[in-house]
């Protein structure tokens, strides 16, 4: 339990409430402490309206009713209690507040009237300041520093009034939020590792060359916070799901994008993903998957040197291009005739031109028909004039390397980080590995994997039993 202290005006207080509302979950309790007129109801009102969004109701103080409840379009119920007039803690049973705390989000003013305070509650203590326009706020609870940093950032960027809604993240520690305010929408990117500089550099590079990266609206790279243009919700993955008849045309657009991208000289600020680096990355598979499936005799230790040797033979002679790396249907935005929107490219590298083609055509989350994969490769080759035989061999190698690494990452996310949901993608990823290993040039790599259990139902159950809790 940590305590953070800050001085805030009304806008900052509301921005903090909205930021906490974005990540609150059913069962969370927030205790609002402070004297009469400190701003507890102001905080609660901003919190509840942020949860409700366009359907927001009036939020009166529940001083006389003691409790007000609000339907929450985000999937739960919000209880707002004011215990100032509570004369006996036993009355809480009549209010139903104790029971509600199990499934609702509860905001409780005057928590000192309670007989016992919840152990896991977040406390927001609001006190007057010498300046009547300011309040001194002390927050006590777990994992608060990022929420406070986000609130300060959006306040400084002029988005203090915006509603904040979490967006689906990825397998990293980065988090994304959509801000909706009077002037439209934007996306807040929170990278606690503070690695935003590369994203900013790549954004400028891509936009200067006409690619569909979002406009940068505000940045604090030292804090790991960015505010960028909202490119919308039409992820290519959703468009492909809703309009399957257009799958080939959509993949033609994606292939054309890669052809255009690869005509540009690689920027000098991206790292190289060469043979040794690819081999090192494959170590993630050897470090996690064999042990998780009870192959404890050093299985997989030969994978990295084999990949390095194969890269030297099959791919090292090809001049590298810019690879956005996490280039797949979940990171592309469909915008009609406008250029495809690009997100999540901060890990861009200099690599063999087959790498991003593999990434989008052998997608862990989305099945691409083999005929579309074949047609897309042929389209890329026709546009670039690269040697077909060598390109297809390199494509198979990069596909095997990338998907082995993904299997290692998904295993680690379960065993170490307690995130088993990625295991559901592993059979598809294993299928890609087998497809790539069927290329004759990859026979040495195929031999190193002989006898390794596939991620079938029994194997995945074995991994789940090791999942961190």
UniProtKB/TrEMBL annotation:
Q: Which residues form the Aminoglycoside phosphotransferase domain?
A: 164-389
* Classification via Pfam families: APH, TsaE
Work out whether the entry's keyword set contains Cytoplasm: yes
Question: What residues form the membrane-spanning segments?
Answer: none
UniProt xrefs under InterPro entries:
Aminoglycoside_PTrfase, Kinase-like_dom_sf, P-loop_NTPase, T6A_TsaE
Tell me yes or no: is Zinc-finger among this UniProt entry's keywords. Answer: no
Q: What is its main location?
A: cytoplasm
Signal peptide region: none
Localization, UniProt: Cytoplasm
Q: What keyword terms does UniProt attach to this protein?
A: ATP-binding, Cytoplasm, Magnesium, Metal-binding, Nucleotide-binding, tRNA processing
Q: Which family does it belong to?
A: Belongs to the TsaE family.
Tell me what this protein is called. Answer: tRNA threonylcarbamoyladenosine biosynthesis protein TsaE
Quick one: which gene encodes this? tsaE
């Amino acid at each position: 339990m940590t305590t953070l202290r800050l001085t805030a005006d009304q806008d900052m207080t509301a921005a903090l409430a909205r930021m906490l509302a974005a990540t609150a979950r059913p069962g969370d309790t927030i205790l609002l402490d402070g004297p009469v007129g400190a701003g507890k109801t102001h905080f609660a009102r901003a919190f509840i309206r942020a949860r409700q969004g366009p359907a927001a109701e009036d939020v009166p103080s529940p001083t006389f009713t003691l409790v007000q409840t609000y339907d929450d379009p985000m999937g739960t119920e919000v209880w707002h209690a004011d215990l100032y007039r509570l004369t006996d803690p036993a009355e809480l049973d009549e209010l139903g507040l104790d029971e509600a705390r199990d499934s609702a989000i509860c905001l409780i003013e005057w928590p000192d009237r309670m007989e016992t305070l919840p152990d896991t509650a977040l406390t927001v203590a609001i006190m007057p300041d010498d300046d009547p326009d300011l309040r001194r706020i002390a927050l006590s609870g777990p994992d608060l520093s990022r929420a406070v940093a986000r609130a300060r950032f959006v306040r400084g960027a002029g988005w203090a009034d915006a509603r904040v809604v979490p967006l689906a993240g990825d397998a990293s520690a980065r988090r994304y939020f959509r801000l909706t305010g009077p002037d439209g929408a934007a996306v807040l990117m929170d990278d606690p590792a503070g690695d935003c500089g590369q994203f900013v550099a790549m954004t400028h590079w891509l936009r200067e060359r006409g690619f569909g990266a979002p406009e940068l609206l505000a940045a604090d790279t030292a804090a790991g916070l960015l505010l960028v243009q909202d490119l919308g919700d039409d992820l290519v993955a959703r468009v492909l799901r809703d309009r399957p008849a257009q799958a080939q045309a959509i993949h033609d657009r994606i292939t054309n994008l890669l052809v255009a991208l690869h005509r540009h000289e690689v920027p000098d600020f991206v790292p190289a993903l060469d043979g040794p680096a690819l081999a090192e990355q494959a170590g993630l598979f050897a470090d996690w998957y064999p042990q998780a499936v009870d192959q404890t005799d050093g299985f997989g230790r030969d994978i990295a040197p084999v990949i390095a040797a194969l890269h030297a033979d099959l791919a090292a002679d090809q001049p590298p291009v810019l690879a956005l790396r996490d280039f797949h249907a979940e990171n592309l935005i469909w915008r009609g005739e406008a250029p495809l929107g690009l997100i999540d490219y901060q890990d861009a590298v200099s690599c063999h031109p087959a790498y991003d083609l593999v990434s989008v055509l052998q997608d862990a989350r989305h099945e691409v028909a083999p005929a579309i994969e074949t047609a897309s490769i042929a389209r890329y080759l026709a546009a670039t004039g690269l040697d077909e035989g060598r390109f297809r061999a390199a494509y198979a190698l990069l596909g095997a390397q990338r998907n082995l690494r993904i299997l290692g990452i998904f295993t680690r996310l379960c065993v170490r980080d307690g995130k088993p949901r990625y295991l559901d993608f592993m059979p598809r990823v294993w299928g890609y590995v087998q497809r790539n290993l069927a290329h004759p040039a990859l026979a040495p790599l195929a031999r190193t994997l002989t006898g390794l259990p596939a991620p079938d139902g029994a194997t995945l159950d074995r991994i789940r039993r090791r999942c961190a809790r």
